[in-house]
């Protein structure tokens, strides 16, 4: 029997970018059985656009913004546990897969089937087309380790952490390890989920020929001492979650001296880049410090929203809510 695939997209105010993704999904050389969008309480007409232009798309409407993590948890709960699709192909709202991306991913799955039956996640190479920046997967050995050039040049290779956008997750993984942690809100919820899957013995295969056009934040080219590089700007609230969730990974979930040192260097590098290239430098640095403090202390949950409300916000378990609606 042919595997059933659902795509799931976590969308927030995506009326201008989401059509490019859905059009690409509808034109895949290997068809997607169901296209699912979690509308994270958009207020720009995203729901109206979906209803008018894409009536075949399943829309799960949230009453409040649950972030990438909460939306992803909702999506996997619905697609894997309720609808029982075999594979769930996950996206941010501004990612656009190549038209043969799904076929390429499944060619990789077939190539691995007879050699390795422990693959629970399969991912493409995300690339920012305008700048040529690749968001390469990481290896994990007491911290972040970049893959070697030899690994990257292989048609199929294995990693420990990939970004959620473009990644296919097997239903078996969801059933065994559970759902993504909605209390991460955004940033590194995908890395936590990958490390959890790896701890249960699942492998994450990278299919190099499968490509995904992916953007993270507002990217621009900057010049520094004769070199040219890409810089991605994030709002202060986003810097908070970046720092907090990384600190939580290192101090609470996978604590070791080398892990903490690796994450500290990673965050320090980000802080230096904020000082050199960022806007709202002071706000971003203060949120970074706040995030590090909360992560070390284990203060999770939705503590800041895009409007940067100062009080922590508590929400219902999103999976429980969607199951009630279903």
Distance between the termini: 27 Å
CATH superfamily of the largest domain: Spore Coat Polysaccharide Biosynthesis Protein SpsA, Chain A
Query: How many strands in all?
Result: 14
Count of structural domains: 2
What name does CATH use for the topology of the largest domain? Spore Coat Polysaccharide Biosynthesis Protein SpsA, Chain A
Name given to the CATH architecture of the largest domain: Alpha-Beta Complex
Question: How many alpha or pi helices?
Answer: 11
Report on this model:
The chain has 326 residues and is of the alpha/beta class. It folds into 2 domains: 5-214, Spore Coat Polysaccharide Biosynthesis Protein SpsA, Chain A; 218-297, no CATH class. The protein has 11 helices and 14 strands. It has helices at 18-26, 46-53, 67-82, 101-113, 149-152, 171-177, 189-199, 236-253, 257-277, 281-297, 318-325, and strands spanning 5-11, 34-39, 58-61, 87-92, 96-97, 119-128, 133-134, 139-140, 144-145, 156-159, 168-170, 203-213, 218-224, 227-233. The strands form 3 sheets. Strands 1, 2, 3, 4, 5, 6, 7, 10, 11 and 12 form a 10-stranded mixed β-sheet that branches. A two-stranded antiparallel ribbon has the order 8-9. A hairpin with a 4-residue loop joins strand 6 and strand 7. Helix 9 runs antiparallel to helix 10. The chain starts with a strand and ends with a helix.
């Amino acid at each position: 029997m042919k595997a059933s695939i659902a795509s799931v997209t976590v969308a927030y105010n995506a009326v201008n970018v989401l059509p490019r993704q859905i059009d690409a999904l509808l034109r895949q050389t290997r068809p997607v059985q169901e296209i699912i969008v979690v509308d994270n309480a958009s207020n720009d007409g995203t729901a109206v656009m979906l209803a008018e232009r894409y009536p075949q798309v399943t829309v799960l409407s949230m009453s409040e913004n649950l972030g990438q993590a909460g939306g992803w948890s909702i999506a996997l709960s619905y697609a894997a546990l309720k609808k029982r699709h075999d594979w769930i192909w996950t996206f941010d709202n501004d990612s656009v897969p190549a038209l043969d991306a799904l076929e390429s991913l499944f060619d990789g799955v077939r190539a691995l089937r007879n050699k390795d039956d422990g693959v629970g996640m399969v991912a493409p190479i995300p690339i920012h087309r305008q700048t040529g920046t690749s968001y390469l997967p990481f290896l994990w050995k007491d911290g972040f380790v970049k893959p070697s050039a030899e690994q990257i040049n292989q048609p199929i290779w294995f990693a420990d952490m990939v970004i959620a956008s473009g990644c296919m997750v097997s239903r078996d993984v969801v059933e065994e390890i559970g759902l993504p942690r909605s209390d991460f809100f955004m940033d590194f919820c995908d890395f936590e989920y990958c490390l959890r899957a790896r701890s249960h013995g699942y492998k994450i295969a990278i299919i190099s020929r499968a490509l995904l056009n992916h953007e993270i934040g507002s990217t621009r080219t900057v010049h520094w001492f004769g070199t040219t590089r890409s810089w991605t700007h994030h709002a202060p609230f986003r810097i908070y979650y970046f720092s907090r969730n990384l600190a939580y990974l290192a101090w609470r979930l996978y604590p070791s001296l080398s892990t903490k040192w690796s994450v500290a260097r990673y965050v320090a590098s980000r802080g230096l880049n904020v000082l050199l290239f960022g806007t709202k430098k002071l706000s971003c640095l203060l949120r970074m410090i706040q995030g590090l403090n909360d992560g070390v202390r284990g203060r999770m949950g939705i503590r800041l929203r895009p409007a940067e409300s100062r009080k922590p916000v508590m929400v219902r378990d999103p999976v429980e809510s969607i199951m009630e609606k279903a």
